[in-house]
Design brief:
47% of the residues lie in helices and 17% in strands. By secondary structure, it is of the alpha/beta class.
């Protein structure tokens, strides 16, 4: 028969081991993320910049994590459908959102009664940015940005610009360009760059903004003239083109950014891991080359850096919306 002292010692040791095991569980759980497939929701149809970035990065994250990253396109309601889906999903890191900055930085200024807000999400990482190209119809008697500005100033109200829709990045960028330089131009909104770019080629409008892949082919065929990009730094795809910032408006930067968000409440350790893993994969040579070919610049920021950038974007776009008195129909 075992002595009561020995039995008590065994029971005490068991309690200690059990306590140590319980204390280790958060670390074990954290180390296992992800332990199942991850869903990444994109609020646009396949083929656009957010979708392209999500698929490029998602594939590399799948390789790194050993778990599948699924891209789930949920277009509708100017991004509201996807935003609501993700914000009401469990905050466990398994349902994430990839979108451009319009969802978080532009929509709040255009739609005062949105069913979501920045507070519903954690900005995990700015994954990439994609400068827009300012292009002219070949018949316009200007070959540089300076010449075009002088031409518009000398002919107020004569020239029209096309955008991909009221309230779009393209529209607000051109309105900021106009107001800062005191230009008088007519706005012609289209339902996307698939319409605004051909309209510029046809001469229906004089100028428009669009992503590199949409205009480079036309430029090579001399059906469009590229005169500048709207990012703070020159585009990797066309480094010979100046920026609007260096030619006409210091600090001018309306390049769209693409980033990843998690629902508010997602554990900080998971947010940090995802952010760090994105920063790693966007620096892989194959990813850099793939993105550069498409006119996309990989970034890979920390959550704090991305949140600060969104605050700047929000203030910038809010100012333009008010100055231009943009109203959604």
């Amino acid at each position: 028969m075992k002595s009561p002292y020995r039995l008590a010692a065994l029971i005490g040791a068991a309690f200690v081991l059990c306590a140590l095991w319980l204390c280790a569980q958060p670390a074990l759980a954290q180390g296992k993320y992800p332990a199942k497939p991850v869903r990444v929701v994109v609020p646009y149809a396949a083929g656009g910049f957010p979708d392209t970035v999500a698929r490029i990065v998602g594939q590399k994250l799948s390789d790194r994590w050993g778990e599948q990253v699924f891209i789930d396109n949920k277009p509708g309601g100017n991004g509201v459908v996807s935003a609501q889906y993700v914000m009401t999903s469990p905050a466990d890191g398994y349902t994430l959102l990839v979108t451009d900055n319009s969802l978080m930085a532009i929509n709040p200024s255009l739609y005062p009664k949105l069913p979501y807000s920045r507070k519903d999400f954690i900005a995990v990482s700015m994954m990439a940015s994609a400068p827009l190209y300012m292009v002219l119809n070949p018949s316009i008697p200007a070959n540089t940005l300076k010449e075009f500005i002088a031409l518009v100033k000398a002919n107020p109200g004569k020239y029209a610009y096309g955008s991909s829709g009221i309230g779009s990045t393209h529209h607000l960028c051109m309105e900021a360009f106009k107001s800062t330089l005191g230009l008088n131009m007519i706005h012609v909104p289209f339902k996307g760059t698939a319409q605004s770019v051909p309209a510029t080629v046809a001469g229906d409008v004089a100028v428009t903004l669009s992503a590199g892949p949409s205009v480079l082919g036309f430029a090579k065929e001399h059906k469009l003239k590229m005169i500048a990009v709207n990012s703070l730094h020159r585009a990797t795809l066309s480094p010979e083109l100046p920026t609007i910032a260096e030619v006409a408006i210091p600090g001018f930067n309306f390049a769209p950014t693409i980033g990843l968000y998690a629902p508010t409440g997602t554990p900080p350790e998971i947010v940090r891991q995802i952010s760090a893993d994105i920063a790693h994969v966007v620096k892989l040579p194959a990813v850099v080359e793939n993105m550069h070919t498409l006119g996309i610049d990989p970034v890979g920021s920390t959550p704090e850096e991305y949140s600060a950038a969104l605050n700047e974007d929000s203030a910038r776009y809010s100012k333009v919306v008010k100055q231009a008195n943009v109203k959604m129909e």
